[in-house]
Every structure is written in structure tokens, then in C-alpha cells.
Write a structure and sequence with these properties.
By secondary structure, the protein is of the alpha/beta class. The chain has six helices and six strands; from the N terminus they run αββββααβααβα. The strands form two sheets. A four-stranded mixed beta sheet has the order 3-2-1-4, covered by helices on one side. The longest helix is centred in the middle third of the chain and has 14 residues. The relative contact order is 0.15.
Length: 170
């Protein structure tokens, strides 16, 4: 079972978005997007195990997220305007806050991200926090790379990370 989905409140809604690279599960509760989960990291057939969430393509947050993702993937949107609910530790939330400041088409290193958080030695902790980012793409953890310029870690796979970075360079 997906740990993130275990934390989703009863009555939440989900839908699937077909990106140009892979299918994505979107989950919303009330007026917030709670999760963006890649097909690569979760067997979508297992969604039936989560009886507390229901498929609802017309949920206002989910339909708006699909619309904005479509605009992003067709180079018509650089920033997202979706209300988010980010559940995590204080350190994770701080790390994700830095991610939201990385401009479209730009990258920073894990070391730079750690420095922005006040401790250049926390590169690995930053990487771990980014790995727990529940709303990738919208909270752009794909924009963080190794100090050497190498691509490291991404829930959707390194091929998808490369695709996203190339998309933003166009």
C-alpha cells in the first residue's frame, strides 16, 4: 500500500491524468490538492484498496489541476496556481518551500538547496525530503540536480526528470 495514500482523509477524490510521459494519479480533499503520484511508483490497479477515496474527474481542484498540467506540458504555463495541502515534517515543508522558489527552466543543486535552508551539510536530508515531496512537478523537485550536474532521484524516474528539464528549456 502507498504510505501517502494512507494519510488521505476519507471522502477525498482522485482522477488520473495522462501526461506525455506517464500516467499520474491526482488526489484532492476538500479544496486542496494532496498528492500527485507517478505510475512508475505505484500500481494504479491497487487504488481499489483505498475505499476512503472516490474517483471524481469533475472535482474542481482535480479538473483545474488537469487543465494546468496540460498547459504546462504544452509550454503554455510556467507556474501553477493550485491550492496545495503539504503534509510532512517541518524540515520537509521547509525543503519543499525552497523548491517552490526555483524558477521555471532553472536548476539548483542539493547543496544549494541545503544552503538556502541554512546548513550546507544537509544535502542528503534535503534529497530525502525531496523524495517525499507529495506533489512533484507542481512543487518542482525535478529542478534539483547533483552538484556535478548529474540527474539524481525522482519518483517518476530519471527519464521523466530529464524530460521535464528539457521541456522547461524550450
Amino acid at each position: 500500500m502507498n504510505k501517502l495514500l494512507k494519510t488521505i482523509p476519507e471522502g477525498s477524490s482522485y482522477c488520473f491524468y495522462k501526461s506525455p510521459f506517464q500516467k499520474i494519479l491526482l488526489v484532492a480533499c476538500n479544496k486542496y490538492l494532496r498528492a500527485l503520484i507517478f505510475e512508475k511508483s505505484f500500481d494504479f490497479r491497487d487504488i481499489a484498496q483505498y475505499t476512503s477515496i472516490n474517483e471524481n474527474k469533475s472535482h474542481s481542484i482535480l479538473s483545474e489541476t488537469c487543465k494546468q498540467l496540460e498547459q504546462f506540458f504544452t509550454n503554455k504555463r510556467k507556474n501553477f496556481d493550485i491550492p496545495l495541502y503539504l503534509e510532512g515534517t517541518d524540515f520537509q515543508k521547509s525543503s519543499w518551500g525552497v523548491l517552490k522558489t526555483i524558477p521555471y527552466g532553472k536548476t539548483i543543486s542539493y547543496q544549494e538547496q541545503a544552503k538556502q535552508l541554512g546548513d550546507i551539510k544537509k544535502c542528503r536530508a534535503v534529497g530525502a525530503a525531496n523524495g517525499k515531496n507529495p506533489i512533484a512537478i507542481i512543487v518542482p523537485c525535478h529542478r534539483v540536480i547533483a552538484k556535478s550536474g548529474a540527474l539524481q532521484g525522482f519518483g517518476g524516474g530519471l527519464d521523466f526528470k530529464k524530460y521535464l528539464l528539457n521541456l522547461e528549456k524550450r
